[in-house]
Amino acid sequence: MRILAMIFLAMSVAFANPIQSKSNFDSTLHSLLNTIKSNKDMKVFTLINHTEAAKERGKSMQNAVVIIFGNPSVGTDLMKQYPQLAIDLPMKILVYEENGKTYVLATDMDTVAKVHGIPLDSPFVKNTKALLDKLTNSVR
């Protein structure tokens, strides 16, 4: 039954509300990357550039890049305790354009915690929510 509940929760993953950036797409993306990289505990694992991937297939779309990042020390310990959490880690932030405006969006950590049975008041959930809020709100 727990697996079925996890599937339904995962299918309806909630995201925090998009936050409109005060800057253009490139400035917003670089600002977030610089902020993440300035934290010695954080690692940017990769960027997924949907716009470039579309271009490679002869298609076009608005700018959209996913930043995949995290703290390997914290993530490793958590995935040992909650192995299925590996599907949702590392953390992700989407920077995208819509109607000429730039937005940032991050996964809602309360939903991720519920899917994996992690207490909402755990240090991981509280600290991750605070970090994602800080990063996404830094573009206002």
Strand content: 15-25%
Uncertain segments are: 7-12
Helix and strand succession?
HEHEHEHEEHH
- For the biggest β-sheet, the strand order reads 1-5-4-3-2
Oligomer description: single chain
Major sheet size, sense and barrel closure: 5 strands, antiparallel
- Beginning-to-end CA distance, first to last residue: 42 Å
Computed CA radius of gyration, to the nearest angstrom: 16 Å
User: In percent, how helical is the residue content?
Assistant: 40-55%
**Discrete helix count:** 6
Number of strands: 5
Could you characterize the architecture of this molecule?
Helix content is 45%, strand content 21%. With 140 residues, the protein is of the alpha+beta class. Helix 1 (2-11) runs antiparallel to helix 5. Residues 7-12 have low confidence and may be disordered.
Secondary-structure topology with pairs:
Layout: H1 2-11, E1 19-20, H2 25-37, E2 43-49, H3 50-56, E3 64-70, H4 72-81, E4 91-98, E5 101-106, H5 109-116, H6 123-137
Antiparallel strand pairs: 1-5, 2-3, 3-4, 4-5
Compact description:
By secondary structure, this protein is of the alpha+beta class. It has helices spanning 2-11, 25-37, 50-56, 72-81, 109-116, 123-137, and strands at residues 19-20, 43-49, 64-70, 91-98, 101-106.
